[in-house]
Automatic annotation (TrEMBL):
Organism name: Candidatus Yanofskybacteria bacterium RIFCSPHIGHO2_01_FULL_41_26
Alphabetical UniProt keywords: Transcription
UniProt keyword tRNA-binding present: no
PANTHER family listed in its UniProt record: RNA POLYMERASE SIGMA FACTOR RPO (PTHR30603), RNA POLYMERASE SIGMA FACTOR SIGD, CHLOROPLASTIC (PTHR30603:SF47)
GO MF annotation terms: DNA-binding transcription factor activity
InterPro entries the UniProt entry points to: Asxl_HARE-HTH, RNA_pol_sigma70, RNA_pol_sigma70_r4, RNA_pol_sigma_r3/r4-like, RNAP_delta_N_dom_sf, Sigma-70_RNA_pol_init_factors, WH-like_DNA-bd_sf
UniProt-listed Pfam families: Sigma70_r4
Protein's UniProt name: HTH HARE-type domain-containing protein
Domain HTH HARE-type: 222-286
GO biological process: DNA-templated transcription initiation
Length: 351
């Protein structure tokens, strides 16, 4: 929009509220942030007037209903029509900050954006959904689209909870389509999913562009351990803690750089990681178990119904630990734990 048109929004609002009583005008101005761009709570306004927050809410509601009765207003209709066109181009739902960006070129709190919200609130079709634990503030073209969006969002989250793992946007889109999840206007399309991701506080993407719940460490890592888990899972191979630190620092995570020694110290404490060699770590979910080479040998022989040949032991231990053959053979020389049979096989020494 041109600068003149943008400035006209505030003039439209001033014209709309000029006939209100002093108190009602002040209350709606403060509730919407029409004075300085900052919205005030029902409670803070109530305290300044010595009335309850519920009474402030009633005055706000009454005032808006009175203003709505004098609509149609050509200026209000102009901005509402423009908002509807923008929403249509974006599938019918849009994060409020994104709508501000298109309207005014600025998504921060301002008198101009507050005035836009006020004007659009007076339209009979447009619906604003306020910020809460599940969503950022967003606008829907009408109540029908709003309800469809909320149903779609609920279905998406349920499917993610059921799958329990991150997926690419394409994989997840195919999953929700397979489960007959409806879109914002009936038919589902990828744009609806993209909109949900911008609006949702529960779903999100990680730095590798994989989708999941923000409560998952793979989507929103909280510290060095989670970041290490994410990069190691992405690599899909055991790595030295030095390499893991480098991967964390080059991945694009927010926050300070990971210290090599800190990474080593944190991985030792976390059961998600298994030390499989000199400074080499793997994920326990890959089938690795904690313990020394001797512990691995004991576990293999304990779970075997008969003595195991040396070659089989070497192969299995080297699959579980990144060590040299000599290290395994040295451990097998522990006569207090292992017995070497005449045929070269090994078994555990009975207590």
């Amino acid at each position: 929009m041109s600068k003149n048109n943008l400035n006209a929004v505030t003039k439209t609002v001033a014209s709309l509220i000029k006939s209100l009583s002093t108190r009602n005008k002040d209350i709606v101005s403060r509730r919407f942030g029409l004075k300085n761009g900052k919205k005030e709570t029902l409670e803070s306004i109530g305290k300044s007037y010595g009335i309850t927050r519920e009474r402030v809410r009633q005055i706000e509601e009454f005032t808006l209903s009175q203003l709505t009765k004098v609509i149609p207003n050509p200026e209000v209709e102009k901005y509402a029509s423009l908002a509807k066109n923008i929403l249509k181009e974006n599938g019918g739902v849009m994060k409020e900050k994104d709508l501000f960006k298109v309207f005014s070129g600025n998504d921060s709190e301002s008198v101009l954006n507050a005035s836009l919200v006020f004007v659009l609130t007076l339209d009979k079709d447009l619906v604003r959904f306020g910020d809460n634990d599940n969503f950022h503030s967003f606008w829907a073209i009408d109540n029908s689209v709003l309800n469809n969006f909320k149903n779609m969002a609920s279905s998406c989250i349920s499917l993610l909870e059921k799958s329990g793992k991150v997926s690419t946007e394409e994989e997840f889109y195919n999953l929700i389509k397979k489960n007959d999840v409806s879109g914002l206007s009936g038919d589902l399309n990828p744009r609806h999913l993209a909109t949900h991701l911008t609006v949702s506080k529960i779903m999100g993407k990680n730095i590798f562009n994989e989708m999941g719940l923000v409560s998952w460490p793979e989507v929103k890592p909280k510290g060095v351990r989670d970041k290490a888990y994410l990069v190691l899972k992405k690599e899909n191979n055991p790595k030295h803690f030095n390499e893991i630190a480098k991967l964390i620092n080059s991945a694009g995570f927010q926050g300070k750089k990971a210290n090599v020694q800190t990474v080593h110290n944190e991985l030792i404490k976390d059961p998600r990681f298994v030390l499989v060699g000199r400074g080499m770590y793997a994920l326990s979910e890959w089938g690795y178990k904690s313990g020394t080479v001797k512990d691995v040998l004991v576990d293999l022989l304990k779970n075997s119904s008969k003595p195991m040949p040396k070659t089989a032991l070497l192969t299995k231990v080297m699959n579980a630990r990144m060590v040299k053959e000599n290290t395994i053979l040295l451990n097998l020389q522990d006569s207090k734990t292992f017995i070497k049979n005449n045929d070269g096989s090994y078994e555990l020494k009975k207590a």
